[in-house]
Every structure is written in C-alpha cells, then in structure tokens.
Amino acid sequence: GQNIDQPTEMTATEGAIVQINCTYQTSGFNGLFWYQQHAGEAPTFLSYNVLDGLEEKGRFSSFLSRSKGYSYLLLKELQMKDSASYLCAVYGGATNKLIFGTGTLLAVQP
Amino acid sequence: DGGITQSPKYLFRKEGQNVTLSCEQNLNHDAMYWYRQDPGQGLRLIYYSQIVNDFQKGDIAEGYSVSREKKESFPLTVTSAQKNPTAFYLCASILDTEAFFGQGTRLTVV
Q1: Cβ neighbours of A90 (radius 10 Å)
Q2: A53, A89, A99, B83 — which has fewest CB within 10 A?
C-alpha cells in the first residue's frame, strides 16, 4: 500500500521560519518531490530529494530520511507571497508512480 | 519555449458527453501523468505512462481513458461513465529529477 501524510494547515508570521513535514509509506522509492501551489493554479516544482540529507535552494530547503520515511520543507524569511499549499509527492515503485499527499495549506500572517 | 501545454484552460460540457483533454510536452520526457484535483483536496492519480504505447491505471481510473501514441502527447478522455467529472485536471511529465505540470484544465459538466 501507499500512504503520504502532511499536516492539513499551518500558520506562520512574516519573516519567520516554518517547517512542513511529510511522512510516507510506499511500495518502492526513487525520490521525493516538493511543490508549491497557489489557489487556482498548477503546482510549481520546488525540490527533489533522492539521497538522505538537506538540499538548500535560497530561502527553501528540503530534507530527506529514507530510513524513517520522512521529509520536511523548510521555508526561511517568510513572505506574504509564500501563502500557498505545499505538496509532497513520492516517486517510485516498479512502474514509477508519482503519488501526492493531500497538501499543507500555509497561511503567512503580517 | 520548452514546456508542457494543456488545452483548453476552461471546458464546459453537458452531462453524458465524452470530452478529451489535451496534454502536449516538448521536453523529451518519457513519463507522463494525469491527476484530478477537487476543491481543497490533493492530487489524485488517474493514469500514467512511462513509454509510448504503454500506460497504467492510477488510483481513480474508472470513467477515464488515455492513449500514448506519441512521446509528446498524452490525451485524457473523460467518459460519460465518470460519475462526478467536474474538477481541475492536471498533466505532468518527468525525466529523472525534472518534473513539471501543465497549467491545468478546469472541466465543468452541466
């Protein structure tokens, strides 16, 4: 079976740091994607983790622990425009499925 | 410009009619995916394809059909058998660590 869990909603303050967690149980794993999705729009690619550890890209970083089935997305210096849904997706298995979690709706407040 | 294109952006159909959503990519990606997103929900996998002339059912394939006659194209047909077809439909393509979405098609069945 497959299961990907994320918190449904989070709230944070402008300028702060927020960590969005994702835990997964899937049959097969090649890598893990993070996407940002603003209301009414298509998701945009943020990061892809294959190996354990932290990948940093500007204000956004993503961490992976394959042994724990765990990832997080770290957003620093939050801006109002970061208010969006953040989607975690696992890529893998014999047929290379790409399965999404339900997403975390982040609200950034002044 | 390289990218993945979905058309049309908005589509209206009468109940009982089949409708085909277009997805074209010029990224030379092997794998392509179709998802459905309902308001406030995550992305659910409908069908996916790793190579030309081959595709697999996702988690909610009932009432949908696809074809993959060319690497660049992966059209999705929403048939009259789909009980609740009104939704936001998203197409994605992947090659290794690169994964992108089209702009989406918002289908409304009246």
Answers
A1: 25
A2: B83
